[in-house]
Amino acid sequence: MHLADSLNLGCLCRTLSPQNLRAQLESDPSLAGLTERLAGSHPHLFSPTSVFLDAATRDLLARTVAAIERVIALPAYQAHTLARAPAIARHTFGPAGVFMGYDFHMAAGGPRLIEINTNAGGALLNAALARAHRACCDSMSDLFDTATDVLGLDDVFVAMFRAEWRAQRGTAPLRTVLIMDDEPDAQYLAPEFALARQLLRRHGIAAEVADPRDLQWRDGALWHPVLPDGQPVDLVYNRLTDFDLSQPAHAALRGAYEAGAVVLTPHPRAHALFADKRNLITLGDDGLLASWGVSAQDRRILHAAIPHTVMVTPQQADDLWARRRQLFFKPVAGYGAKAAYRGDKLTRRVWSEIIAGGFVAQDLVPPSERLVDVNGEPTRLKLDLRAYTYRGAVQLLAARTWSGQTTNFRTPGGGFSPVVVLPAVAPASAEIHSTPPSTLSIHQALSPTP
């Protein structure tokens, strides 16, 4: 076991101070009361416990993301993928897509990529959470991942939005941004929309949270009543799950996007190239990748990182049903674990829906675990890791801890957790394994063996 594994399974340390979290979430007067509202409506959004990761695994995650993005940049990959995508995905205006999310399970042989998400939520919340956890542990600052400057993440995120704007508009000034989702106030991560709005405003950009149903596409520009008269929409930070903008309520946004009249990020092309679950089949096809000229090194990285994935078809139904306990089933355009099923939990009714079409089957990679204190009882929760990235570079690592079939924010002691990347040190001593979980502290675990 790595030292990180030993700490995840043996350290009950709680590193979150509610006061520090409030200071991070309510840094702007307009956000006053946000922490209290979250405590009432989202009681299990934030875990009080950090997740540990060794530096070598952190580096491997970064190499995996970079290898995937090199493949996705290939003309052959894009032609192969876009051939089955909606026509709107063939537009290319320059932006890459903000807040790409790569989700991993930590397996015995290394990290395994479970899925890629184009409008991955939680980056701003996790940045605030990481700062709040770190603020309580100044005496252990040498333990923290120096590759990620959590204190400077706000500037990194704003620079990302500006880079998206420049990719399509060059040196023109970015004036207005809409953070957009259907009924945004009703969305589970609506608090993050408020954080994004205030972040952009602090950097001189007029930002608002908006519903796409109120958009107007006229006179060659996109307009919304939340903006002052005479100011069109420059950029839309897109949180919609209508990935091809095909719903009638999004017609104005679609029209402006197809005309190149608004900068949209992320956009339908990014979803088609990255997040469609059928892409995991392509990224795991070594022969196909070799025929496209993908290097042997990148193919080795992808072979190790991507669980075997196949399309569910009626012809394979009997075989897949027989092997269902070793499989996980996901809709090709799914998100947020919706309609995703562990094979050992399937009913015949659900199975009939899966074989009707639109699902992939992925080799099951059980998540690793984190020991947490739940009302005084040591409790093991499942965990996964998310890498928030931009143009192939990892900006922030975060974890989610939960209990149940899929990730959720309903588990006492669970929720978003900051990731502490440990420095390269010798393997954990046997003393760590033998120390009772209820008494093991991070200080004891990292003390040199006498």
Characterization of the model:
With 450 residues, the chain is an alpha+beta fold. The chain contains 17 helices and 17 strands. It has helices at residues 3-10, 18-25, 34-41, 55-72, 75-82, 123-135, 153-169, 190-202, 251-258, 268-275, 279-283, 286-291, 296-305, 317-322, 348-354, 430-434, 442-446, and strands spanning 51-54, 100-107, 110-117, 176-180, 206-210, 216-218, 221-223, 235-238, 263-265, 309-311, 327-331, 341-342, 359-363, 368-374, 377-390, 393-402, 415-422. Strands 1, 2, 3, 14, 15, 16 and 17 form a 7-stranded mixed beta sheet that branches. A 4-stranded parallel beta sheet has the order 5-4-8-9, covered by helices on one side. Strand 15 (377-390) and strand 16 (393-402) form a beta hairpin. Helix 2 (18-25) crosses helix 6 and helix 4 crosses helix 13. The longest helix is centred in the first third of the chain and has 18 residues, at 55-72. The radius of gyration is 22 Å and the shape is globular. The two termini are 20 Å apart. Mean pLDDT is 90; it is low at 426-450.
